Amino acid sequence: MSSTLRPLIGLAAERPLTRAEAETAFGTFFDGSATPSQMGGMLMALRVRGETVDEIAAAAAVMRANCKPVRAPQGAMDIVGTGGDGKGTLNISTATAFVVAGAGVPVAKHGNRNLSSKSGAADALSQMGINVMVGPDVVEKALETCGICFMMAPMHHPAMAHVGPARAELGTRTIFNILGPLTNPAGVKRQLTGTFSRDLIRPMAETLLDLGSEAAWLVHGSDGTDELSIAGVSYVAKLNDGAVEITEVHPEDAGLPTHPFEAILGGEPAENAKAFQTLLEGEASAYRDAVLLNSAAALVVAGKANSLPEGAEMAAQSIDSGAAKGKITALAAATQTQG
To answer: How many Cβ atoms are within 10 Å of 199's Cβ, its own excluded?
Structure first.
């Protein structure tokens, strides 16, 4: 039992914790001194009151400090969602990562197995011959040689094992449901991040600003998805030049048509991987347009494209030239031969 955490639980129920207090509290989570019941008490106190940017940033900073890091090239970015939207779509952020890498932007993708769908990023990649259970050394070399890597969260955040029992007992969303996209082991400064709630886009953008990010889009689709929606409007918090701006994005802004949400629903990992492969072959579909839209946004965040239409054209070229598919082949070879 942590004597340090105990008084902070009471404070957290009454008022927002300072950055220092929150860092101290989460430090006990990761050093193993806090008990599951203490962790549960703190997590619920924060959830009931509502986590502040300082508290989220503190938790992310401590989690980053306890991770197994990966060195990334200048300009590397992450393309990731919080999960938890419960929508069961095809793997849009995962496909987007390879399209963006094919367009010349280094992508250090952080992810896990399925959370809100039948097939998470790791599930789909495993179906495509990529070994996701490799350590930081293999990941780092893959990023250097292939221009893309996949960092399996449990391989880089071993201290999270202390937190697992408390989260399992609570069985409800906590601050940890939003920390994944904020704790990239490669320390990327740019990212396109989807959230399961519109209410999270601003606080998560402000947290990334606090943590030193240069540019980011935090997005939530009006259809409830944790990505830019191909079905209609999406809500976006844009972080750029040290400020956060709230705006909306529609597929037409990128020169793309809309499609019904049902057109991008996914299935089992093998089914999603097949759709992924078909996408990379260049077939026209709602899935392709959804990936083009999200890729366009990512390329703008990366500074590679000046506008969404330009980004969509670059993304289409990445697919149709075979560059995106080549990134899959290269990463599969790099992880299987070294893993």
So the answer is: 12
Binding-site residues for anthranilate, in ranges, read 81, 112, 167
Question: Using an 8 Å Cβ cutoff, are 107 and 79 in contact?
Answer: yes
**Residue list, annotated binding site for Mg(2+):** 93, 226-227
CA distances from 207 to 50, 69, 237, 268 (A): 14, 20, 12, 34
Q: How many CA atoms lie within 13 A of 136 on its CB side?
A: 13
Q: Could you tell me which of 332, 260, 311 has the C-alpha nearest to residue 100?
A: 311
**Per-residue confidence in pLDDT tens, the chain, 339 aa:** 788 999 999 999 999 999 999 999 999 999 999 999 999 999 999 999 999 999 999 999 999 999 999 999 999 999 998 877 777 889 999 999 999 999 999 999 998 875 545 567 888 899 889 999 999 999 999 999 999 999 999 999 999 999 988 988 888 889 998 999 999 999 999 999 999 999 999 999 999 999 999 999 999 999 999 999 999 999 999 999 999 999 999 999 999 999 999 999 988 888 899 999 999 999 999 999 999 999 999 999 999 999 999 999 999 999 999 999 999 999 999 999 654
Burial 79-89 (b: 16+ CB within 10 A, else e): bbbbbbbebbb
Annotated binding site: 81, 84-85, 89, 91-94, 109-117, 121, 167, 226-227
| Per-state percent for the chain, helix, strand, coil, to nearest 5 | 55, 15, 35
The CATH-assigned architecture of domain 77-338 is 3-Layer(aba) Sandwich (3.40)
Token pair, residue 73, equals 């090239």
- For the annotated binding site for 5-phospho-alpha-D-ribose 1-diphosphate, the residues are 81, 84-85, 89, 91-94, 109-117, 121
